[in-house]
Amino acid sequence: MKAIILAAGFGTRLWPLTIGRTKPAIPFLNRPLINYTIDYLRNYGVEELIINLHHEPHSVIEQIGDGSRYGVKITYSIEEPEILGTSGALDRVRHLLEDGTFVVINGKIITDIDLNSSLETHHKSNALATLVLRPNPERKRFSEVKITEDGRISEFAGFPELVDPPSSIRNRPPELAAIRNPVSPLMFTGIHIMEPAIFDYIPRGRFSDSVRDVYPKAMADGQMIAAHIAEGSWYELSTLERYLTISLEFLQRGGHDKASTVMMDEGCEIESGAIVERSILWKGVRVERGAKLTDCIVGDDVVIPAFANFHRAAIVSADLAAGSERPEKAMPGEVIGKNLVVHFGG
Q1: Do residue 245 and residue 231 come from a single domain?
Q2: What is the pLDDT along the chain (346 residues), one digit of tens a residue?
Q3: 81 and 190 share one domain
Q4: Which domain holds residue 217?
Q5: Alpha-carbon distance 188 to 171, whole Å?
């Protein structure tokens, strides 16, 4: 079986971390994020992979290569001059995917969802495509997917509405969100399983989106677009807030103290008298004496000057950002000394 990893997006909400690299190429625990998707697929015996690229494609190719070091074979599909969307990406490589069931997966997620169980649901339902869903009890801002009793997807909806709970349970902690919102909406994990017949619904040679364009057309034609409701962990790193929070969560699982958790890549230096807490430092970062970082993400080769103080900020070299315009969905930044600083969160 083959899989295509969708990695062509611009990563606008992760700006400025995505200056000079695409989102799946950013480091997560000192490994490119896309490595986790490659490992996930290989663990289920999927060793023929296609990766579509558009924004800064070299940032993935230079780190991943032909896939041999990971035990897989990789074919790259570079979309130029325009990005093609989630189904347009499939159209461009349809000649590689027409020989059997294949997996489509987002390159920005980390998960241990049982892919074999998802495939079993797909084959039992004789579906044209199966979308892997999971409950969203906390009603986070992920689009809701509605299903019928027989496991068909019936609607792709907007963000779930927040439910105002009774006063007796309003102050319960987040882990009791399922009690607070007893009817949990379902969200899409970014994992699809498809049959080659899906190409009958994908237009040739132009942008198209699976959820907005292709699936509704197939559903209107009576095709079975099935839902598999999965268990297991799932993380999506598409904002600065999520990137930091999930990184720190993984570090704390590894035994790091919650208050002082720090991840440093090679070549980093924290000078005497500097304080770094709950922060992620990429390669070659130097934090000079008396400086303080709390809840920060610091890009390659950044120097935090002596006695500077940053809280909840993504910091990259201003030279790297020179000539780079802030994307529409990105948070505003300011140049402070030799660094571009983007503050996020509270």
Answers
A1: no
A2: 999 999 999 999 999 999 999 999 999 999 999 999 999 999 999 999 999 999 999 999 999 999 999 999 999 999 999 999 999 999 999 999 999 999 999 999 999 999 999 999 999 999 999 999 999 988 888 999 999 989 999 999 988 876 654 444 445 454 444 444 457 899 999 999 999 999 999 999 999 999 999 999 999 999 999 999 999 999 999 999 999 999 999 998 876 666 668 999 999 999 999 999 999 999 999 999 999 999 999 999 999 999 999 999 999 999 998 888 899 889 999 999 999 999 997 6
A3: yes
A4: 2-236
A5: 28
How far apart CA 99 and CA 118 sit, in angstroms, is 20
- Hey, is 340 helix, strand or coil? strand
Is the Cβ–Cβ distance between 202 and 208 less than 8 Å? Answer: yes
Q: Residue type at 8?
A: A
Burial class (CB in 10 A: 0-12, 13-18, 19+), 148: exposed
Give the number of domains in the chain.
2
Indicate the burial class of 102 (C-beta count within 10 angstroms; 0-12, 13-18, 19 or more): buried
254 and 211 within one domain: no
Strand pairing category for 286-287 and 269-270 = parallel
Q: Under a CB-based contact definition with an 8 Å cutoff, are residues 224 and 123 in contact?
A: no
In this structure, what CATH number is given to the domain that contains residue 190? 3.90.550.10
Q: State how far the alpha carbon of 329 is from the alpha carbons of 192, 238, 240, 270, 325, in Å.
A: 26, 12, 12, 33, 12
Q: Which residue is listed with tokens 């993380």?
A: 235
The helix (H) or strand (E) run that includes residue 194 is strand 186-194
Tell me, yes or no, whether 107 and 212 share the same domain: yes
* Alpha carbons within 13 A on the beta-carbon side of 314: 22
Instruction: With H, G, I as helix, E, B as strand and everything else as coil, classify residue 29.
Output: coil
Q: Per the structure block, which two tokens stand in for 148?
A: 């019928």
Per DSSP bridges, beta strands 186-194 and 73-78 are unpaired
Q: Which of 184, 205, 236 is the last residue of a domain?
A: 236
Counting every residue, how long is the chain? Answer: 346
